[in-house]
Structure formats: structure tokens, C-alpha cells
Design brief:
The chain has about 250 residues and is mainly alpha-helical. The chain folds into two domains: about 70 residues, Orthogonal Bundle (Arc Repressor Mutant, subunit A), CATH 1.10.10; about 140 residues, Up-down Bundle (Four Helix Bundle (Hemerythrin (Met), subunit A)). The chain has twelve helices and three strands; from the N terminus they run ααβααββαααααααα. It has a three-stranded antiparallel sheet. Helix 2 packs across helix 4. The protein is globular. The chain starts with 13 loop residues before the first helix and ends in a 13-residue tail after the last helix. The C terminus is likely disordered.
Length: about 250
């Protein structure tokens, strides 16, 4: 069967069937797959999401797909259509407001990480940063992967599950491949400089500096992308903007 979605067609898992994987676990897997595809830009705004098609593509029944779509609707990532669902377009104004929320949440996470992270966790963040410095700025996939990993290490090091969940829920706008192609090597360099400031604050166990650096990083990179995507001030508050608040998001 031809898969019209960007994510790969899954083969049925005999191991999973034999071990009796719960419906909740399967629904969670479908949710994560769809959410990732939407946030990465693999599934584009207004693209239809039909239960039967998704179930066939992921080799699951329609029940976990239906449950996953309901969760995505609660997050306002998708909207109901006459037949099925579709990915919702996000305005630049919404993206800007979301970036402010993320700056506050991730800024506080960086503060907590500076206070709570183990030396191993700080070393892990440093290792990701070193890998990022070594990659080719034209390697969009590597830029996206290392950026998300750097932020994820810091959020996990904050050791606050509710804060991590709130950041996840606010994460409807991510640095992704399509955004990477729009940003220049110079902007990549500036992003790495931001990461270096955050890392230095973590090493110094300076919560104030870590929070300030993270907030500034997220908002600076959002404004760079907004300027690139919407050079007209009048259009910036109305035009659809999908899944990005820059490399800091």
C-alpha cells in the first residue's frame, strides 16, 4: 500500500501482539508519531488526516488513531473537517505569544537545571553543544536534532515533571527542517553562541544567568525567523505561520 504520509509505514509487530501491548500504550505511540510529524512540518497545515488512512499507514486499528487525534485536537494542533481532521494553521501572532510562554517556561527550567543538574547532565549538554559546533551549517537535519537534544537535556535536568509537561504542551512551534533552510549560517553561529552562554551559566551554577540566557535565546531566534518569514509588519499578525519559533524553540 502506498503511504501518503511522510512517516514510514509500520509493519505489524508479532512481539507486541504476543505480549499484549495495551491500547493506551498503542494510542500513545500513534499520538507521538503524529505529533512529531506535525511539529516537524512533515504533515503540513490543512493536510487532511483520515482515521482509516492513518491506521493503515501505522498498522494499527482505528481506535488508537481516534484517541490520538482527539488528544491533538485538545492541543489545538488539528481541527475537525467535513471528513476527518486537518492540521491547523498557526498565525504569526500566535507563534509570538507561544514563544513568550516558552521563554518563561524554558527560562525557569534553565534556572532549575543550573541548581539541580548533576555534573553528568551538564557534561551531556556540553557534549551536544560540541557536536553542534562541528556540524555543517547546511546539514538541516543535524541542526534540528542537536538543537532539540540540547534543550531536552536542560529541561530534563530541571527535574520537574509538571514543568516538562507544560513545555511539551506549549511546544507547537519547533525549529524544523523547513525553518533550518530559511536561516543563514550566521544565524546558526548566533544560536551556538546563545547555547554557549546557557552552558556557561549551568557550569557556574548561576540560575539568574541561565534563565536570562535561555529567555533571550528563545525570543531572539523567534524574532529572526519572524523577520525572515514575514517582512511586512502588517502581515505578521495575520499570516499563517506553521511550527516554528526559531532555533531556540
Amino acid at each position: 500500500m502506498q503511504n501518503r504520509f511522510s512517516f514510514p509505514v509500520s509493519e505489524p509487530s508479532a512481539t507486541a501482539a504476543e505480549s499484549g501491548v495495551s491500547g493506551r500504550r498503542r494510542s500513545g505511540d500513534v499520538y507521538e508519531t503524529l505529533r512529531s510529524a506535525i511539529l516537524s512540518g512533515e504533515i503540513r497545515p490543512n493536510e487532511p488526516l483520515i482515521e482509516a488512512d492513518i491506521a493503515a499507514a501505522l498498522a494499527v486499528s482505528r481506535t488508537p488513531v481516534r484517541e490520538a487525534l482527539q488528544r491533538l485536537a485538545v492541543e489545538q494542533l488539528i481541527l475537525p473537517r467535513k471528513r476527518g481532521w486537518a492540521v491547523r494553521e498557526i498565525t504569526a501572532l500566535e507563534a509570538g505569544e507561544n514563544s513568550e510562554v516558552r521563554a518563561a517556561l524554558e527560562g525557569y527550567a534553565a534556572r532549575l537545571a543550573a541548581e539541580r543538574a548533576t555534573e553528568t547532565e551538564i557534561a551531556a549538554a556540553a557534549a551536544v553543544h560540541a557536536r553542534r559546533l562541528a556540524i555543517d551549517p547546511a546539514d538541516d537535519a543535524a541542526r534540528v536534532e542537536t538543537n532539540r537534544e540540547f534543550h531536552r537535556v536542560i529541561v530534563d535536568a530541571a527535574r520537574n515533571g509538571r514543568l516538562r509537561d507544560a513545555i511539551l504542551r506549549s511546544g507547537r512551534f519547533y525549529f524544523n527542517g523547513s525553518v533550518a533552510r530559511m536561516t543563514s549560517p550566521e544565524e546558526f553561529r548566533l544560536s551556538n553562541e546563545d547555547h554557549a552562554l546557557i552552558l556557561a551559566a549551568l557550569r557556574a551554577r548561576d540560575g539568574d544567568r541561565a534563565e536570562h540566557a535561555m529567555r533571550g535565546h528563545i525570543m531572539r531566534t523567534f524574532h529572526i525567523f519572524r523577520k525572515l518569514a514575514y517582512p511586512s509588519p502588517d502581515a505578521s499578525s495575520l499570516a499563517p505561520l506553521h511550527a516554528t519559533s526559531g532555533e531556540g524553540a
